[in-house]
Amino acid sequence: MLASLLGNPAVMIMTVGALVGIAATLVGTFLVLRGTSMLSDAISHSIVFGIVIVWLLTHQQSGPVQIVGAALTGILTVFLTELLVNSKRVKQDAAIGLVFPLLFSIGVLLLNLYAGNVHIDTHTVLLGEIGFVWLDTVTLGGYEVPQSLLSMGAMTLLNALFVGLLFKELKLATFDAALARALGFAPGVLFYALLLLTSGTAVAAFDAVGAVLFVAFVIVIPSTAYLLTDRLALMLAIGVAVSIASSICGYGLAVRLDVSIGGMMAAMTGVFLLLAFLFGPRYGLVAQARERRRQRHLNESRNLAVHLYNHEGEPEQGEENVARALREHLLWSHERSRRAILQALDAGHIQRQGELLQLTATGREVAREILEPGRR
């Protein structure tokens, strides 16, 4: 059974894609919540520099040494960025735009000068090729296991352990760094540890999806989850689900359309983001449109209560507190008048006595709260 799964290219491709998304989501969620998600873009480009440097020193194209070395380059990127920001002469977005193109360009130059005959090229680093991950295998326990499956599985497990063991500390450091610092949780250290894991994940993922597409997984998926919930734990769970769905749907569509598998997986994360943006239960455009409509209808009902209250007990009550007056005096359309009356009746704010609309005790209280906002 295991041998058949490991030997199935489609299963391996989708599994690696899902692991990339899950590992990226676990660290990317906190970057998105901190408002520093674009650091992942800087890291994913600058690790090219680290990959080349590690190869020049060790002649290793993959493995733990390559991951650690390139990950440290990600930390270097953040360090240089903060160094520029702390100078008070450059803002963070400009600092990121200065540092990572510099490191990336140096990495590309070194790649062309000293690693031209090695299987490390800019196309692979930037775009990867997840469709071939099942061909690059190592023997483990008598089974041929894709190397990307092992590296991404290890990074996913490491990220999950980090988030699981330090969940409360990460949550506090993300939402209230000052309080975390006062309680001795060292939010700065947690942040750098998070960035180190982000760098390691980017290195482990670049064979499969490349540095550019990694950004989609580390930013878009957490952003999708953010549109769907306000709870951190649920946000992480949704990110995992979207990662798996993006991998499966992306692979199926890529095979059907004969396009890049990694690119289609990344595109599917965008599709899920669009769906969340449109149909999210709280922040989606449809939900917000419904809420605005509900508030508009509620305001009509409240305006009706104020109108009836102003004329209640007055000589003109019989002329003003009827449905016809809403159209003639308030210039409401027939449909608007009907809707306001029905909503007020459903809410128990008014009652009918023939044609006369009368406020109930509840409706009278609503009108008083509007006319006398300081009243208790």
From TrEMBL:
SUPFAM superfamilies linked: ABC transporter involved in vitamin B12 uptake, BtuC
Pfam families assigned: ABC-3
Keyword annotations: Cell membrane, Membrane, Transmembrane, Transmembrane helix, Transport
Listed Gene3D superfamilies: ABC transporter involved in vitamin B12 uptake, BtuC (1.10.3470.10)
Subcellular localization, as worded in the UniProt entry: Cell membrane
InterPro entries recorded: ABC_BtuC-like, ABC_TroCD
Membrane-spanning residues: 12-32, 39-58, 64-85, 94-115, 149-167, 179-197, 203-221, 233-254, 260-285
Membrane topology: Multi-pass membrane protein
Predominant location: membrane
Family assignment from sequence similarity: Belongs to the ABC-3 integral membrane protein family.
Identification of the protein by name: Metal ABC transporter permease
Source organism of the structure: Kushneria aurantia
